[in-house]
Design brief:
2 copies of one chain form a homodimer.
Chain A: E1 25-30, E2 37-46, H1 52-62, E3 70-77, E4 83-91, H2 94-103, H3 105-112, E5 121-129, E6 134-138, E7 153-158, H4 166-170, E8 197-202, E9 206-214, H5 220-243, H6 245-248, E10 250-259, E11 266-276, H7 279-288, H8 290-306, E12 313-321, E13 324-330, E14 344-348
Antiparallel strand pairs in A: 1-7, 2-4, 2-5, 3-4, 3-10, 5-13, 6-12, 8-13, 8-14, 9-11, 9-12, 10-11
Helix pairs in contact in A: 2-3, 5-8, 7-8
Pfam families (chains A, B): Dehydratase_hem
Protein name (chains A, B): Phenylacetaldoxime dehydratase family protein
InterPro entries (chains A, B): OXD
Chain lengths: ~350, ~350
């Protein structure tokens, strides 16, 4: 049995009449009704790997395993030469999330960290939405990723894919809401974030994508194809977004490498965490820019070529946030996360 | 045709088996599906009525009529001898709300107000929820109140009333979520709010009630009964909540008098805007405290006595908020709104 929310459609869907996808895709469904989904990203921003704060952070993360329905450990090259070690926790139960924030060692350490004396940076970005503002796609149902690692979730085959506008159509809310940002994106140059604890309020309908790549089972030709072809196309696309933030609506982009939580060895699994001013701007890039078309066509062609033997898996999950101030930065560099494009900057006291 | 959201029930309902309400009641339904409901309270806090800032505020309010689906003008006795003049705007379209915030004279005046030089206080409290965190009750369907003044809403008879726990049962989300606050309510004594622009982030599952009284059509015996009996019972109840904030979970309580928007004359219409740490604490007071039982029994008895000729109408609308930082105070006195019980205080820069 599965539960999903649908609205009687008021706005037209984007699916072309009679559309048949070129490649099979799957999407996440929940076994039980849920009113709020939460992805909780909590990170330490280090001057370098192996900074003494890394071990402290890892110990806090290990001691905070009770509560989240799924956790991951990720590493990213941070801004201004920093390294970010990220604890990602998923919850389908918002009360369990609040209890974890209130009681667990990692979030309580973050809340008590003194920004004035901290020797490293730290940040906490909480994405929480009603399921009507959430959509997913997976190229292969045999593996679990992101929210799909929570118990009580399944991957179902779908046909709402393979056309531009399909991601929008997969948001239940898109049937009744244009998911449209109001106002412009302005880059701040006045962010004095060192030694301070700052909050950012995102603007209404900020879109956040976690787009994943998994090639652990890949061998031989497929491994070469991923590492030499698809990965470089992906990085070219990401470079374009980072270099043209205002044109593309990009607010923040991080390339995350999944770590084995025991050995801390990097896995053959990456994901891009991107914040966009609006879903429309993310769609515009996906529909029209050659850097995305290169990624998209490569993925479709690879699936057609290798079929079920395809051993590189791509997927994403996207949320469209209502206004939220759940982005907090302690002693971070000024270009961290949403700080450079903060519509509203808030000093926590 | 009407639309509502329901979830397959996971948590038990509170309705006793075979329950039949003693008095008929109505609840709000929406004609069309909606993903976010918004009540936008924007106020000026004056040292006294007829302060020169009052006229400026009223002119801004009159110039901001385009956008909201319903507006009201309200006055309240504010804290520390102030007077609060409040513009209340309702929206069932969140994009229309964002456009209004971005373009309309009143909210843009508020956003640009310089806290350091302002001669009056001002505040802005925005309540925005998915309809699954919203419930209403009306003693009479012949009048419209609150969200019920938006086009595309209707009052429907119901039987989810007349027992303790009925309000909770009316929240669609209560079928799957205990709507439970985590953590304690702590009174701050360190709020230095004069000359500053501060934001408050509410804690998860803060409950906000607007509970209304309307006796414009009341004459003779019913008018006397309202003004001499029910009103004093109501005020006794409100005094109890204000005097015992921590015991009752009361974060803020304002008694609002509705004004005729043209003449500014007070109407025979009041409402109480109350913020509570949790729905459970509001329920506890309603179920067990003699000050609420006196109000409740009086209303039931009056309806039984006068039947359809009953000319005093009572109603309420309640929302349970996920965490939200949409509470902003400019140069207000420190006991305004959520400031004294702010879990997190944020300085806007």
């Amino acid at each position: 049995m599965s539960w999903s929310i649908t609205y009687p459609r008021v706005l037209p869907e984007r699916r072309p009449p009679g559309h048949e996808p070129r490649a099979p895709r799957w999407t996440l469904v929940l076994d039980a009704p849920t009113s709020l989904l939460t992805a909780d990203y909590l990170a330490v921003q280090l001057p370098r790997r192996d900074d003494p704060a890394e071990e402290e952070f890892l110990a806090l993360a290990r001691a905070s395993a009770d509560g989240p329905e799924s956790t991951e450990l990720l590493v990213a090259t941070g801004p201004e030469g920093t390294v970010e070690l990220i604890h990602l926790a998923y919850f389908t139960d918002p009360t369990a999330h609040e209890r974890w924030l209130h009681d667990a060692p990692l979030p309580t350490w973050f809340d008590r960290l003194d920004a004035a004396t901290a020797t490293v940076g730290a940040w906490h970005e909480v994405l929480q939405v009603h399921p009507d503002r959430f959509e997913t796609i997976y190229s292969d149902p045999r593996w679990t990723f992101g929210f799909g690692r929570c118990a009580g979730t399944e991957r179902e085959p779908m046909t709402t894919n393979g056309y531009f506008g399909a991601a929008r159509d997969r948001f239940p809310a898109s049937a009744i809401d244009p998911l449209e940002a109001v106002g412009k994106q302005v880059r701040r140059t006045d962010v004095d974030s060192h030694g301070r604890r700052l909050r950012v309020e995102s603007s209404h309908d900020t879109a956040v994508i976690r787009s994943g790549q998994f090639w652990e089972p890949a061998e031989g030709e497929q491994l070469v194809d991923y590492e030499h072809n698809l990965q470089s196309k992906l990085l070219t696309g990401m470079d374009h977004l980072r270099e043209h933030p205002s044109d593309t609506g990009t607010l923040s982009l991080r390339i995350l490498t999944s770590l084995d939580p025991a050995s801390l060895a990097p896995r053959r699994e990456t994901s891009v965490l991107g914040y966009f001013h609006s879903l429309g701007e993310l769609e515009e890039w996906a529909a029209s820019h050659h850097t995305h078309l290169a990624i998209y066509e490569h993925a479709i062609e690879a699936k057609r070529h290798w079929g079920d033997a395809r051993s590189v898996v791509t997927w994403h999950e996207v949320v469209v946030l209502p206004r939220s101030a759940r982005f907090e930065y302690v002693n971070c560099v000024p270009t961290t996360g949403l700080l450079p494009f903060a519509p509203t900057l808030l000093t926590v006291s």
